[in-house]
């Protein structure tokens, strides 16, 4: 049995990790809320119907914002009667929430890469195979790895529980798969983005490459920290960074989508707008074309907007103006 001072140290460590994660999640939400209103709720320029990416953005953003409220309770509640705390339900709920948000991230990144490769079935098939394998492994880890805790396992009358060694190994395997998928997608994104930038100096691809480097650097480091913590730390410290990784993933996915709605990428400055008529086949697969509303502009004044959408009337106007 650990001493009281050790239990206090473990509790503070777990709560510190949670505070960092939730602070990041909600701070980023509040500082980007005005952008969400301007770029998502009230689209710039002509009136547009909500597309699948808009709904995906709302699902990811607000599931993470609202869905983490019970987990905040899990990390910070203290009771004089710990037997009445819904520990098992909270732990299961948190695992399911992590699973759903990771699925959201995987789906978004797979579709993003699929579009980047001109809807290549080979690329899609490879990514789906890896993604489905990780999905199956995750379900297995949650169902088979379900652990029954006793009240005495809780740290100082809280809902904070240790992670069993076998359970930690299973979850480490899941996160190793997630890391492998992230690295695969990052490699594919880097290859195609650099290839297009060298050929066409595409502005939207520079944005994608910049966001991709930032996203995958942060996510890879956080995922690696989860794997290390699960494999080498003590039972109460195993997986402490999972909550950080999950909040960071949800935040960065929202940021990636917000950046694709940024009006500044619709009107880049400088001589090279980054769009040419020979690029249209690629960009139709990848985005919606948005008319900037200024009269007399040709195809080079039509810039890229929402990810993986296409509106036939916009495409027709582009093809006609290109003739």
UniProtKB/TrEMBL annotation:
The chain crosses the membrane at residues 12-31, 52-76, 96-115, 122-143, 171-191, 212-233. It comes from the Eukaryota. Pfam families: DUF6533. Residues 18-66 form the DUF6533 domain. Keywords: Membrane, Transmembrane, Transmembrane helix. The keyword Calcium does not apply. This is DUF6533 domain-containing protein. It comes from Coprinopsis marcescibilis (Agaric fungus).
């Amino acid at each position: 049995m650990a001493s009281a001072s050790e239990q206090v140290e473990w509790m503070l460590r777990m709560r510190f990790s949670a505070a960092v994660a939730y602070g990041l999640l909600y701070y980023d939400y509040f500082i980007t809320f005005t952008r969400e209103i301007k770029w998502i709720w009230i689209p710039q320029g002509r009136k547009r119907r909500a597309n699948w990416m808009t709904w995906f953005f709302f699902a990811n953003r607000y599931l993470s914002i609202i869905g983490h409220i019970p987990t905040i309770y899990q990390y910070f509640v203290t009771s004089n009667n710990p037997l009445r705390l819904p520990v098992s339900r909270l732990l299961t709920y948190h695992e399911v929430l992590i699973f759903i948000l990771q699925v959201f991230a995987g789906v978004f990144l797979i579709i993003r890469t699929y579009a980047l490769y001109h809807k290549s079935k080979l690329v899609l098939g490879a990514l789906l195979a890896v993604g489905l394998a990780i999905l199956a492994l995750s379900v297995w880890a949650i169902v088979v790895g379900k652990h029954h805790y006793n009240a005495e396992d809780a740290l100082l009358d809280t809902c904070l529980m240790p992670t069993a060694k076998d359970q930690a190994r299973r979850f480490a395997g899941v996160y190793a798969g997630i890391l492998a998928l992230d690295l695969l997608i990052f490699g594919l994104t880097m290859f195609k983005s650099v290839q297009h930038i060298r050929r066409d100096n595409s502005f939207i691809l520079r944005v994608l490459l910049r966001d991709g480097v930032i996203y995958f650097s942060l996510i890879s480091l956080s995922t690696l920290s989860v794997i290390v913590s699960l494999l080498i730390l003590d039972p109460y410290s195993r997986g402490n960074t999972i909550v950080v990784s999950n909040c960071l993933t949800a935040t960065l996915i929202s940021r990636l989508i917000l950046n694709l709605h940024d009006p500044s990428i619709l009107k880049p400055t400088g001589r090279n707008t980054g769009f040419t008529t020979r690029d249209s086949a690629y960009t139709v697969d990848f985005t919606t074309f948005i008319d900037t509303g200024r009269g007399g502009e040709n195809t080079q004044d039509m810039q890229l907007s929402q990810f993986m959408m296409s509106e036939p009337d916009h495409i027709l106007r582009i093809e006609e103006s290109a003739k």
